Each structure stands twice: as C-alpha cells, then as structure tokens.
Amino acid sequence: MTTAARLDNLLDFPESTTPAQRALVPVLLPVALDQTYDYLPPASGAPQPGAFVTVPFGNQTRIGLVWHAPSGAAETQKLDQKKLKAINEVLDVPPLPLISLRFAEWIAKYTLSPLGMVSRMMMSAREVFEPSKPRFGVTIVPNAPLPPRMTPARQRALEIAGDRLIRPKATLARAAECTAGVIDGLVAAGCLVEAAIPEKRCPRPDPAHRVVEFSLEQQQAVDALLPVADAGNFSVTLLDGVTGSGKTEVYFEAVARTLAKGRQVLIMLPEIALTSQFMSRFEGRFGCAPVEWHSAQSGSERARLWKAVASGEARVVVGARSALFLPYPDLGLIVIDEEHDGGFKQDDRVNYQARDMAVVRGRLGDCPVVLASATPSIESHVNARSGKYRHLVLPGRFSGTELPQIEAIDLRTEQPEKGRWLAPRLVNEMAETLARGRQSLLFLNRRGYAPLTLCRACGHRLECPQCTAWLVEHRFKERLNCHHCGFSLPVPDKCPKCGEEGSMTACGPGVERVAEETSERFPEARIALLSSDLIPSLTEMRQIIKQIEAGETDIIIGTQLVAKGHHFPNLDLVGIVDGDLGLAQGADPRAGERTFQLLHQVTGRAGREAVRGRAFIQTHLPEHPVMAAMLSGERDAFIDQEIRVRQAGMLPPYGRLAALIVSAKDKETAQLIARDIAHRAPLAERIQVLGPAEAPIAVIRGRYRWRLLVKAPREIDLQTYLRAWLARLPPIKGDIRLVVDVDPYSFL
Ligand code: ADP
Ligand code: ZN
C-alpha cells in the first residue's frame, strides 16, 4: 500500500473499526518501541489523536501521545480486556497536529527508527509538560505617596519603575544598582507592588516592512518564486546562486508572501548558533526578529516557543534541523538555506537527513519548499536537471564584483619553511593586505594545535586509549584531546613509553598552530581565532563576528565555523592552509563534492563588496578534479563529472545506500556478529551487500566497529528489503549494538 493510501485509511478509522475497538485509545510512548499500547479512555472522554496524556506503564507513570487508531506504522499491542488500564489524564498541552503524526510515521518507516524515538523528537521541549509557573515581578503603584524615607537608591529604583513595566525584583535592583532589600522596602512602603509578569509574546513580522530594490537578475528570480509561494502547494525550488548574489533577499520575498497569507514559515539553517547576521537581516526586512529555535535556549524558553508555534502565534521559525519537528498547524513555506551542508544529517538515535525530510514534510503538508545554496548538492542538481525541482539561478554577485580570483600554491614546489605552514607567497599576500588595512582569512578545518604528538626518541605516538585515533593537542587548554570520545589528558613532559624527558613533539598543524605562526609573523595584527572548542558561548561567538564585521580584526583564522554564510565586507584575501584535507576519505562518495563545496564557500568570503577578492589554496594535488574546478571556476564541468561518477557507480542519487554498523566491546564478537548478519542477508537480484569490513575508525569509546554497506538501484524499495533482513536476525543481545543508517553521510 502506498503511504497516501494507508494514511487515508487511518483518517477513516471511525467507520472501519467496531465500537468495542473504538473505545480503546492507542498511546505511543516516546521510547525505542515501534508499537502503541491500548488504554481505556479517561473519565473525561476519549482524547483526540495528537493529544498528550499520562498513562500507567509498568509501575511508572509516563507521558504518551495519543495516536490515530488503528495505528498504521505502529502495531497495537492486543491486551487482555481485564488487564486494560485507563489513561490517567489528558495534559493541558496543545495536541500535535495530525500532520506531525503522519510525518513521524513516514520518518520512522524511511529511517527504520522506532516510531517512539521519532515522536520523541516532537516532544523535545520537555518543560511544555510541566505546569507553567507564572513569574512574579514588581511594578510601580501609580500615584502612591513617596516613601517616608527617601534615599538615592530608592529614588533610582522608583525612577526606573516609573515606566510601569513589571520586572523581576532582581532585574530592577540591578538596573537601579541597589540591593534586593531596597526593593522590598519600597514594596513594604506601598510604592511598588508585586504582579505576575505577562508571558512574552512573539512579535509579528511585517511582510511590507521594507521594500527591496532588486537587480534585474534578482527580480527574475523573485518573479519566478512568488507564484510558487502564492500557489502554496507542494513544489521544490532550487535557488542556486553564487555567494553574495542575494539568495536570502530573494527568498525573503517568498517568506513575505506566505506571511501575508497568514501561514507559517520555517527557515532551516545548518548552524543556527552562528547566524546573528541572518537575524539582523531578517529584522531589517520584516521589522522584528524571527523565532529562533536551537539547543542553546533554556528549557522554559523552548517550552514557550513550542506553544507559540502550536498556537500559530510564532509566524517565522528559524532553526537548525530540530525545528522541523515543531507542531506547526499551518506551515506554508519551508526554506532550507545552505542545503548542501552536511550539518543537516543527524547521526544520533534517529539517523535522518533533515533537508530530505523537509522535502517530505512539504509534500505531506502540501507546501512549497525552497532549497538555497551557492554549491547545491549533487542530489539537488540531478533533481533540478531532471525537472523534478524548479531551478532558479543567480549567476552574479549583487555588488557587481566578480568572484574571487583563485590560485593554487603547489606545496611540492613552494614549500613553507621548516616547522611553518604558510608558503612564502601566501605570507606576502597577507602582508600586503594588512598594509592596505584590509582583512585576510586563513582556513584550516582542523581544531587544536597539532593532530599528532609523538616521541622523538622512540617514535611512540599518543593515541586515545578508547578509540582508533591520535590525541589532538589543544595548546590553549594545555591538554591532549580525543575528538571522538572526549578523552583528555594533560600534555605529558616525558614520553609515557620510553620515559625520555622533553621528547614529545607536535606534528602537523591545527588552527591554533596556524594562529601561533601568524602572530609571530604579524605581531602588530589583530587576530581572531574561530574554533568551536575555543568559544565558550553563542553570545561570545556573535560578539567576535560583530567585531570582524566592524573591521576590528585584521586576520581571521578558523575552522569551518568561518565558512558558513558570513558576510565580512572588509575581507579581501582567503588562504586555504590545507586544501587536500577532505579528499582522503576513500570510501565516502561525497568526499570530492564536499571538499569542493567547502573550498568554494570559504573562498567566497573574499571580496564580497568593493574590490575583487583573491584566494590561495595550498595543495599537494593541484591536478585533482576538485582543485582544477576551483582554479578554473568551471563549476558545471565539475558537477557533470561528479554526476557521471555517481551514475556509473550507482551512487546517490542514482542508487540507494544504507550502512549497517555493528559494534561491541569485544573485538571478536563484533566481527562474528557482523559476519552472521551479512550471512543472513536475503538474496535479492539487484541489491548488493558489501562487507563486513572493519570501520575506518575501528574503535570508538572502546567499542569495536564493523560496517556493512547495502547498495540498491534507486527504484528498489530498500526499506522493505532491510526490514525483511532485520526480521531474520536473532535478537541483538548484551552489549552488541546494530545501527542502521539509511542514506549514510559518514563512512567512518
Ligand atoms: P547570498 O545569500 O546569495 O550569499 P546575500 O543574500 O547574503 O547573498 O546577499 C549578499 C549581500 O548583498 C548582503 O549584504 C545583502 O544584504 C546584499 N544584497 C543582496 N541583494 C540586495 C538587494 N536587492 N538590495 C540591497 N542589498 C542586497
Ligand atoms: Zn577516544
């Protein structure tokens, strides 16, 4: 049965079930189970599907979600009538819209994840389920007589409270630079009174706040996009425009149109934590900030926003992939910016690709989807070429400046001095840029000081005791860290193997080492180092970005944090310290594509406004197709080539892939189980099962890992095959773990 047909059945349930069955309520628990449990309705009557309830489960009380009955993806556990228990209560929380249930079923089916775990992602704001505690503050009593004893502190507090706002006591005390006692004194004197602080409301973006004047090219894209937004039904548009072409401004018009119709909008960004620029541009266009959704928000804030989305009060949500699972009752547009970004793939519990699931959400909810990128994924290019997606192209920068001029520095002939990482030509360019008062950016996608520490005396390399990985030195923290499990130890001053004093040597560069070299070479330059492990909070990150924008920095050094979406008007020069870094991942069919995207995005930071930028890529492989495409600017030739490779190798999007990853604490067990799983694979003519092979990172957190890769042509229903296979396996017991990753993005 097709999904749509099955869903129709679900929606028809009152006619298709007997009265006795109808009385039972299927409840899904947010745990790793694929089935619902039947409960008797509570005294208050049967709750509607999507309602949140508490139920007795074992000897606990748990929060559950009323599913539709009989549930389609989920099997209902048939219980003995006498053992049936009743729902305790229906929670006073907005129910999930039906579309969310359908979406959860679809994802569970596609990713082979338990429905309970998918639904859990829709219940991520845990504090929604706690009774909301009104917060209290103080406010001025209008026309109250002055307190008998006036002090300067009291005076200040009363002056501030004169605006009649209700503030928490502590906030007022801080503003008036006085103690909480002073505020209490004013309450006792009858000048201030306690009052409940009203819930914060989400401001309403105004579609007509600012009228944008578009360039001719932009206007054409806008003209093509507006009918899509107006139609309001499902379609996918690929907005493919070079960095700085104004993609954001263009899709903002579609956002405005959708808002004007009173529907909600979701804008997904890969790295929401970094997008202060995006927020201020949104505000410039719509007069207020959008609702932000990310993990750095407090629980109570998330609860408030979750409810605001459910009620429709939140009009535009900007968020990372988890924003896809909010309870939108009327989503009218989904935009996925930087659609090619690997950050949209989640590899934790439920393995899903949020961009692809957003397209599914658009189809289920019948609303348009816009994918934007300067370097669209091969998958999206193929869909655009086949006509499945509309393709809108913005070929030039809005500022009119050309894309940066890119040159290779061949490290085989132009080597940096010993112990240094920047070739002389790049250093000269940086010196010149600095002398002109302009900014340079050095990019190296490697955190820390050095990726390897070894003993000069005996050759011993410092490895993580729990992973197949070297320990990475982080010099600012004076520690060695494992980037896979978080293991860490202080940098030893003698070799742990041979005991030689002072023999430990750092090998290779990380961003910290590049920063060290840069400050030695340019002691007068103001340097900003951007690496996720060095920046304590979102606020600080945004602060640094602001300083860069304001020209208070001369040289920016960073990991891929700097690649994404920033618009630095004073940046003229980009240096890629190691252009080959991403190419070595042999088994990963997207290694070339990803390196191209990253290099393109980073070099695209240069020369966005007045002058044409320049970029230098240090590489050992100047002839590699990725480098050749970067240097010649022939993007389309590179895409053609990648598409041919994918087609020939039956790789995505021409073929489907799924990875099975088996891990266990014991090496032998992991291997044996992986082999056994492979043996049990059902025979199917056009499906290949490769492996098991030891994973490239053979051990993580003390667990030995083996991988299987399943390859099938695109028209084959891989999920049905996988499900049949999994059904043949004996129960996975003990400490053995089996992860199924449909459409894998990591091959490590
Ligand atoms: P992209 O997302 O394609 O990299 P942006 O949307 O960030 O490009 O646009 C680049 C810069 O040009 C931004 O500062 C943006 O405000 C500006 N810009 C683009 N289009 C316009 C326009 N029509 N009017 C004014 N400024 C624009
Ligand atoms: Zn480790």
Please give a structural write-up.
The protein has 748 residues and is an alpha/beta fold. The protein folds into five domains: 4-123, GIY-YIG endonuclease (3-Layer(aba) Sandwich), CATH 3.40.1440.60; 136-196; 216-394, 3-Layer(aba) Sandwich (Rossmann fold); 405-446 and 509-643, Rossmann fold (3-Layer(aba) Sandwich); 655-742, Alpha-Beta Plaits (2-Layer Sandwich), CATH 3.30.70.600. The protein has 22 helices and 32 strands. The strands form eight sheets. A seven-stranded parallel β-sheet has the order 11-12-10-13-16-9-17, with helices on both faces. A six-stranded mixed β-sheet has the order 5-2-1-4-3-6. Strands 18-28-27-19-26-25 form a six-stranded parallel β-sheet, with helices on both faces. α9 runs parallel beside α10 and α18 (591-603) runs parallel beside α19 (625-632). The longest helix has 16 residues, at 216-231. It binds adenosine-5'-diphosphate and zinc ion (ZN). The site of zinc ion (ZN) has 8 residues, from loops. Adenosine-5'-diphosphate is lined by residues 212-214, 218, 241, 243-249, 398, 567.
